[in-house]
Target: Leucine--tRNA ligase
Amino acid sequence: MYKHNEIEQKWRKFWAENKSFATGNNSNKKAYILDMFPYPSGMGLHVGHLEGYTATDIIARYKRLNGFDVLHPIGWDAFGLPAEQYAIKTGNDPEPFTLKNIANFRRQLQAMGFSYDYDKEVNTTDPKFYIWTQWIFKEMYKQGLASIEEIDVNWCEGLGTVLANEEILEKNGIKVSERGNFPVVKKPMKQWVLKITAYADKLLEGLEDLDWPESLKQLQRNWIGRSKGHIVKWNISSSEQQKLQLSTFTTRLDTIYGVTAIVISPEHPLLQKITTAKYHDDISNYLKEVKLKNELERTSLNKDKTGYFTGSYAIHPLTNELIPIWVSDYVLMSYGSGAVMCVPGHDQRDYEFAKKFDLRIKKIIECDELPFLGDGIHINSDIANGLDNAGAVKCIFNELKANNLADEKVSYKLRDWIFSRQRYWGEPFPVLFDEENNIYLVKELVELPKIKNIKPSGTTSGPLANVESWMNVEINGKKYHHDTNVMPQWAGSSWYYLAYILKNPDGSYTPLNSSEAKKRFEEWMPVDLYIGGQEHAVLHLLYARFWHRFLFDLGIVNTKEPFTKLINQGLIMGPDGQKMSKSLGNVINPDDFILSHGADSLRVYEMFMGPLVESKSWSTDSLNGIRRWIEKIYNIFEYFVKGNIDINNSNNELISNINKLILEVSENIEKTKFNIAISKMMVFTNYLTSLKTIPSSFVLKQFAILLSPFAPFLAEELLFMLNEKPIQYQTWPYADETKIIIKNIQIGIQINGKVRSQIEILPNWSNEEIIENAKKLDNVAKWLQGHEIVKVIYKDFKILNFIIK
Ligand code: ANZ
Model:
């Protein structure tokens, strides 16, 4: 009788004792199969983790059986807010809490039979790990990519910290923190900033060759938001003596003859200077109003436009017309130059703005109706008349450039990465400040001090500010202090996939900047397959690509990109079709099902639910069905092994079927179509139940190995029943295609859509052969006689239709 608990326990023990999944080191074929490592929350693993982790595990096991050295590691993204909040709430240290959660996660992963090499386990909160996170930071600092800046940051009072743009959501037009849904406001603060913008082009270009979902690449492109355009410089008329100039950024230089206003951002540094006395009060009231709005509210197309005239005029560089300068919050200071040339005739937002404030609307491109946003023949445009967009841009740019009034410019939506968090549970910065706030890099590890009681320490510094003994350092009589902030959670996850490669069985790490590291990276990088949730489309995946590209530029790693192929697993929804959440009470706990149904059933079920990338709803009924299939496999083996193998009884059909199955399972694993691979195996087991005897156990052995990536515990037990060696000593079965019996295929033949006959064909016939043979059939020839065939419609092995006249 199939007893999953006994079987699973037995093989779990065997694998651990034998280090069955140790990273291989004998083959010149290498495969690096990576999961997005989990944040070890107090809740334990959820079924979504298991979906992605089962998928990579199937590939890892398949690759091993195919003679690859496989690196399939796991670790813990263990710094982070929940542990910190828990610690604050309970007055505990986040470290033991985190370690306890990790132990629980590890137990769950082992229960699922994932073939991780636990010697490679990493933990971002381990000083041996984060000394290298700090090292990368220091290298960035040396290269001018990390600096302290006073900037408008996203301040979240509820969390007591600054957040990156990527950590903020818009809910009903209000900015809130992704974690906890607390309101977020803008506030100037001194922060560490990483210049990811310096890598914008490299990050864009690097996307091209990646085997990633196109939609995900597009998300990253949009996030980087590269626009090629022009800066136009406008002299301000009232300021001849001061020679004030204002720059606008435009992607439509061709429309410059349609400009009827200049609109600047409320944060523009020239605003005060150019506002005339008459408009002063209006504008200072307006600025107060604007402070309360967020970016989305400001720039949405359908939001009512607001703004004020400043009282000043700019001189049109080509026509010398006086152009009124307005201020409006639909212009953002953080993009382009913080000022736009307003072309109401040919831009939607400018049109709405002009309508609201009665500005002139000029038509400068041939069209029926304004606003017209497309390309066309330019009119009312003096030197650009008769030209299209490209021609007009060129001729206008040459004219302006000659007078030094325009430049080419590329703008990015991407902002630099704010890298300070006012928290405790993170990597400390490896720096010291002297009393003049000069920065010194610390050569050694800067270890996070233990604190008894984590308390936020106000608005500009983190809880570390409370630890005076750690904060203040005296070296050779000179006083220094540490940074009160720590790094964001994204730091460790930006390079952890390299840390696995550096991790040694004795727990040490080979130095990231050593020649040994370089050699190992050359062996293992890039990651061949990375599977994880869609929620990391821009955050983690952009940061990790940035750090990796930086390490490439330093000569540390040998590839420009870290992750060659990436798959986003689909969401597993609750039984009610809704996203699982505590509040809906539809969360499925894997622990319960491992006990009741077994890990193998759970693995196979999650892979059988549907295509990996699609979202699907949980159904315990279907899980029961899978459990019955798993049990059936066990029973089939037991039946044959107990005396129903008859060597005198050859069966070509069985041999054909298993060889066909080997082809199908291999192909569908390669294509990550695991649900299809499983259904093929189901068809085969149904066939097996129809047999009284089989000629040898060889077929059973082959089947057990095919099953092993999906249901590894059962597969080990089946091999054991057959007296065969465990999986780690086996190889993937070879499909002997000469043994596959090809059955003829029937196709219906239609004449003008009416079925008139049918034909039996062989799968290797060409389309021409099929059509020619069909025409010769009596029942077809009869109908075709005396008619002209105007069209032949043939759908692969399904239908053949002659259209005749
Ligand atoms: C004149 C113009 C005429 C524009 C026209 C568009 C159409 P993308 O493509 O997203 O880069 N713009 C420039 N800086 C801005 C800022 N700080 N805040 C808000 N809008 C700004 O958009 C570039 C266009 O967005 C620029 O081209 C500018 O409007 C506006 F028929 O200039 B355009």
